[in-house]
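Two proteins were folded this term; both appear here.
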Amino acid sequence: MRGLVLALIAIVAGPLAARADGDAAKGQRVFNYCVSCHRIGPGATTLVGPELNGVVGRKAGTLPGYPYSDAMKNSGVTWDEATLLRYLRGPQAMIPGIRMTFGGIRKDEDIVNLIAYLKTFDAAGNPVAPPP
């Protein structure tokens, strides 16, 4: 019984601990999944999808000049770590009716690292130092 309890704690606590801090360098490599539609960093512009500077903390569907679907504009989502984790697993499953056709990222570790990378740029595309 004790082994089962410890296993359950590891299953629950592992992903929660991983969410606290990802590896931005690894996340930059994961961003290769996104680069065909999105840009981030200095000089980033909107392509098929909106540029992602400052996305963490931003309300979904609010980047000026991007023609978001009604589903995204009316989602009520704010992009925090937990929401991005869920969204990046399966965008259409989380917000049906959006235009994003990406199927999702399978590994939570990759998503956590991607979020860490996204957090390295402010809304103007300037690099932000990670917290100590």
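Next, the second protein.
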Amino acid sequence: MEYGPVPAEQVRKWIGEGRADVQTRARGEESGDWKPLSDFPEFAGALAGRQAVAPVAPPRIGAADAERLAAAMISRDYAVDIGDCFSRSWNLVKDNFWLLVGATALVFVVRAGLGFFPVLGIPTNVILGFALQGGLCLLFLKRLR
């Protein structure tokens, strides 16, 4: 899961809570490379004496907590930077060109091929199309993250 950008104080708090450790991967604002927190000198003091911990499943939340969490998320201020969106999408395609083009072409060919069957082609194309399109979106999201 990806969080951020967050200030260094928040990362130190996560280290103190045990949510982050020496193996937790992060990237600095000036760098696009993901590195373990142990590679960041600014967290050396917070990480001193800490070992890697096994991942723990997040606590389950009840309906009341879910409503409160949803209200808090909706109330947050969020700004969309169109230039950043285009920049990230270009980097995504540039870094994974053949994989993304190949997967998109495969989905296109399968959906186009199903259109040639007169009776079963259209309903199958609709049903299978949702699964194929969902898989393609999942591929793009995983590559982005």
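The radius of gyration is 21 Å. The chain has two domains: 8-75, 82-144. These notes refer to the second protein only.
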